[in-house]
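Problem: given the chain below (440 residues), write out its structure.
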Amino acid sequence: MAANPVDLKPAARVHSGEWHAVVLSFVYFFCVLAAYYMLRPVREQLSAAVGSTQLPWFYGATFVVMLALAPVFGALVARYPRRITVPSIYLFAIICLLGFVPLFVAPELLGVRTLGIVFFVWVSVFNLFAVSVFWIFMTDIWDEAQSRRLFPVIAVAGTAGAVAGPLLTRSLVEVIGVAPLLVASSVLLGIAVACVVALGRWARKHSTRRHDVAHEAAVGGSMWDGLRQVFANPFMRGMAMLLLLADGIGTVCYALVADYSNATFTDAVARTRFAANVDLAANLLTVIAQLTLTRWLLPRKGPGAVLLVWALAGAAVLLMVVLADDPHAPLIGAMPAVAIALIVSRGLAYGMAEPARHSLFAQVPRNLRYKGQNAVDTAVWRFGDLSISLAMNALRSIGVVTAGFAGLSAVAAVTAAALGWRLSKQVEGSKAPAQQAAGA
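Solution.
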């Protein structure tokens, strides 16, 4: 099963012994993202209804919950083996999701505002943990060479789910309402759990890492290891900084689009439909990027080149917003400049940056993958959301407007390009993370 990391023929990307696991991984990721993206427009219309100046409250609550859950996740993976931890996380999410159904049927049980805040926080936490656990699981069953070949292919499944989710929401929300969407999301997550169990069985027999004595065992260590690794391990510090810079692009674009939606649409259905259209456009771009640039570039040039192209493309589209006479004026169809910037930055982030970033994690020790990677993908990400939204409110108070925010994000994108390139060369050249694991 050993694979050359520079397979040039598309037909050779998936080897004969890998097809069963690739199909299961494909279905697994499709279901996770479809489940999330059925709920995302509901969350988006809640934030658009209050405007971006209130986002720090949403992000702050999400960050606090995420920070509290990071050591809990660390404790789970330290004590229990993978075959118990990963399915249990998704089963808990299903129980929570079904618990929201009666609250959406009768919102007066909790109160509309309280329900909105709780649901926003839950969906935000669910998203990061569900996707983070997926990629951790992938980096645990596929080795470095396989991750370069297969992650662009597997990532397409998530994008397909991300396209299917908004399509379902857009077509069903006015017909059946929100509560049935929650039930449908739960069913999709149930299918994902079945895939996790089947993949675990495959990995025990066929994974290139199956000979590792600790492959199926609990990771061990302390529940605080993940957060500590973010500060103590140089590679994890770099990955955390890379994610914060990426967040400096995504969160700014998200806030600007939330302001546009708040100023343009007067009811929840219209805001939900607009959010679904933005998600659909971004996800279609993700598919194109995954099937073309990432699929070609990652196996041949490595993650550094992919991260470089992603970040510089993001800087270019943000400069478009800076130079536009009116950033809210329609440029393509009914889409304003800020929405186009969000579509491009988000589409390339998930289509290029995420497969490349996670292929770097596939090259580090298991303790870092399960704990440090999860801390970066959850607590650090939501810390970025909170700090950036607070900074935007502070900058607004001194007169910074849309063009200024877009310019600052473009600077973050250029910095991310340099950092991503350096981290890739660090891992591929010196294998420093493995040498530093003892100090993690």
